[in-house]
Write a structure and sequence with these properties.
- The protein has 159 residues and is an all-alpha fold.
- The chain has a single domain, classed as Phosphatidic acid phosphatase type 2/haloperoxidase (Vanadium-containing Chloroperoxidase, domain 1, Up-down Bundle).
- It contains seven helices and no strands.
- Helix 5 packs parallel to helix 7.
- The longest helix has 25 residues.
Amino acid sequence: MISLIVIVFAANYLFVLPVVLFIGYGIIAKKRKEFWITALLVLPLSYLLGKLIGHFYYDPRPFVESQVVPLFHHVADNGFPSDHALLTGTLAAILLPFSGWFAALLWVLAFIVGGARVLAHVHHTIDILGSFVIALISLGIVRVILARVRPTTHDTLHV
């Protein structure tokens, strides 16, 4: 059985590792400018979409609707989407067009964070998976927009 300490750590603090790795990748990325532009557009879009969808879809936390006791104190608010899963999933999604293996590493960490939050009884699986879907949709929207506003190779304008 996974130690309760490991679950609590992963649920509350492991999200910092993907943040640090993401920033580190952004510093050494070959397409640094494109990477940071993508990140600066996807991150707020993902957050805003998450908040918007959360207003329309309410999922009470597991400890609110059943007799389970969470492994740590948490506010009894809407569990959808999971902020931790949304952040880690968004960071992993942003990396997809830039580094498949690095994105895979961050996806593994995102699933560990999300899984730990389910095991800690502060989220349902739908909260985690929904967060990942929001992250991927946000990336898709930004990629479509960037593809339309980028100058073609025939243009002389270079930003």
